[in-house]
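Okay, can you check this protein?
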Amino acid sequence: VAEENGIIRNDLFLKDGLHITKNGYSVVSKKIKSACRLDGSLDALFIGDSYMSVAYWNGFEDDMRSVEAVNLGVGGTQTVYWKDKLDYLKNNYTAESIAIHIGVNDVDDGGASAEEATTRIKDLLNSLHAAFPESKIIWMTISPNKMFEHKNYIYPTVNSAIKDYATENEWLVVCDVARNFTDENGRDIEKNY
């Protein structure tokens, strides 16, 4: 399920046919129509924590066979890591879309409250937009997890705040992958882990 400017849809089609859906624990992106660019620009740049990394998304190369895409996801990273990497990203990549899963480690390992995590994520998203003003930024919601179950109650508050923020910023899209792990009351769906 994806949300763009407050409108919830079952999937999300982006510029030039980039299609994102939820599949298992990773986000699968496929290029509907092929476009290889001579200038080296990308259709999609994937960054963020382990949910986005190729360590968990082991089918990335197959999924991206017809897409100009790079996955730089690094397990365990928090927002500050990617904020520190912005100059590197800006100097080395251009992309139509930048997909990011970030925030879970700010809460789990970093001990951030919902308010702190929301502030950090907004700051990073704004910085990404400033560095890549022509790119669509796609933020993946924080999904509950079994490792830090006692912190799962924080994620819906963060997710809701970033969804609200996206309604005010046309450059930002929220892809609600967390919906695949919770029921209509926000409780974990055990079989989806």
Observations:
- The longest strand covers residues 42-48.
